[in-house]
Design goal:
Mannose-Binding Protein A, Chain A, four-stranded antiparallel β-sheet, 10 strands
């Protein structure tokens, strides 16, 4: 192509930019008025239904309050019954203590002391023992005793061992002896090392068969050797022990 040839140029014309239109904000008050105009009055059925719902809610709240008051009254009644039972036992033991004391012809006040145990507990040598009829695990048995301000029984000598063994009515009872802290190191729940006291295992116990870390007093063996080691999770009745109450008149 000839470089000197005539070149034709076209004129380009650009349209002016479109002007943005102003957007008018909606009048919220007008919108609200439209919504209000569109509302309909609730029907009679809806009004009655709402009234029933409100009434049922009030009744439910009232029933809940009555239930709470009933539970509180029940708890207070149980506490009152417990206090009455304690007073009745105290009066009874006071009478027994007075009858058992030596008679005196003097008018001087007497200072007499007697010991007694709670209802369903057995008294022996100033101690009280409770033979539970219900089986629990060893840990739960101990907790049950502690709720009675007692502990699983600690057998300190042959006399106590014989006394407890003769009181048994079931096959076996948990006692407060365990080696759960260290295998082979048997201790009573009061912290006493068994090696410092008499032992009443029947042969060849304790054998730790299947992790047997807690002890029972069993009726399957002749006296006095009738202790057996058992897994602590098993369920047996148990023996609680605590000091007898002292009454002075």
């Amino acid at each position: 192509m000839d470089p000197e040839a005539e070149v034709t140029y076209a004129d380009l014309k650009f349209l002016p930019r479109l002007q943005q239109t102003d957007v008018k904000k909606a009048d919220l008050s007008d919108l609200r008025s439209l919504l209000i105009k569109g509302q309909e009055r609730p029907s009679i059925e809806a009004t009655i239904g709402l009234a029933f719902i409100i009434n049922d809610s009030r009744l439910l709240a009232g029933n809940m309050q009555l239930l709470e008051e009933s539970e509180q009254a029940k708890s207070e009644l149980q506490q009152a019954e417990g206090r009455y039972s304690q007073l009745l036992q105290l009066a009874l033991h006071t009478k027994i203590c007075a009858l058992e004391s030596p008679s005196s012809n003097t008018s001087e006040p007497r200072n007499i002391s007697c010991t007694f145990c709670p209802y369903q507990w057995i008294s022996n040598k100033g101690r009280c023992y409770y033979f539970s009829p219900s089986p629990l695990s060893w840990n739960d048995s101990r907790s049950s005793c502690q709720r009675e301000q007692a502990e699983l029984v600690v057998i300190t000598n042959r006399e106590e061992q014989d006394f407890l063994s003769k009181q048994q009515s079931l096959e076996a009872y948990w006692i407060g002896l365990t080696d759960v802290a260290q295998e082979g190191s048997w201790k009573w729940v009061d912290g006493t090392d068994l090696n410092q006291m008499e032992k009443f295992w029947f042969f060849p116990q304790p054998d730790n068969y299947h992790n047997e870390d807690c002890a029972t007093l069993t009726t399957r063996q002749p006296l006095p050797l009738n202790w057996n080691d058992v897994p602590c999770y098993k369920f047996f009745p148990y023996i609680c022990e605590k000091a007898a109450n002292t009454l002075t008149i």
